[in-house]
Amino acid sequence: MQIEYRTGDLLEAAEPVIVHGCNAQGSMGAGVARAIRDRYPAAYAAYRAAHEARALKLGTIVWAECGRHRVGNAITQERFGSPRGGRRFVDYDAMRSVMRAINETVEDGTAVAMPLIGAGLAGGSWSVIAKIVEAESTRFRPVVYLLDGIVPET
Q1: Which of 37, 66, 81, 145 is the S-S candidate for 28 at Cβ 3.0 to 4.6 Å?
Q2: Please, is 71 exposed, middle or buried when counting C-beta atoms within 10 Å of its C-beta (0-12, 13-18, 19+)?
Q3: Does the pLDDT of residue 153 top 80, yes or no?
């Protein structure tokens, strides 16, 4: 499905489901993951429990019920670091698997809020990621939140 873009705060999303990208190392220390950790302790607890169980595998999602939102910690990158110098941490195949996992989990037509998953600190190209999201979101409606209202060109 085509991505719907909204300007605003992802954590205030009207959509019932929020999905964001995470690493497989058990750390949610920066970016959107840090904001999710701080706002939704249950999402972080589920992620840490999966880490301790050695269950953080690329392309999977760790779900948590967090009040009015169901939060999906999507394991889209093995490691984390600075994207300076052109480093890319997001794994495009993992992104594809995550989108397919959302299809299998949510009810038809559910709106799923997300940031520019993989295009920030993970160093990925939004033009590549957006194509994956649109191609794989066959049962849910992807809603991407932008703080500044600007869709990246890369």
Answers
A1: 37
A2: buried
A3: no
Is the pLDDT assigned to residue 122 strictly greater than 80? Answer: yes
Residue 70 has φ and ψ, to the nearest 5°, of -100, 125
Pseudo-torsion of CA 31, 33, 34, 39, nearest 10°? Answer: 130
Global pTM? 0.94
Tokens representing 106? 């949510």
CA dist 126 and 16 (Å) reads: 24
Residues 20-68: tens digit of each pLDDT: 999 999 999 899 999 999 999 999 999 999 999 999 999 999 999 999 9
Cβ atoms within 10 Å of 138's Cβ, excluding its own: 12
Sequence-separated (6 or more) residues with CB below 8 Å from residue 57:
24, 75
Do the beta carbons of residue 19 and residue 114 sit within 8 Å?
yes
Please give the structure tokens belonging to residue 63: 């779900």
Q: Which helix (H) or strand (E) holds 69?
A: strand 69-77
The C-alpha angle 57, 64, 2, rounded to 5 degrees, equals: 75
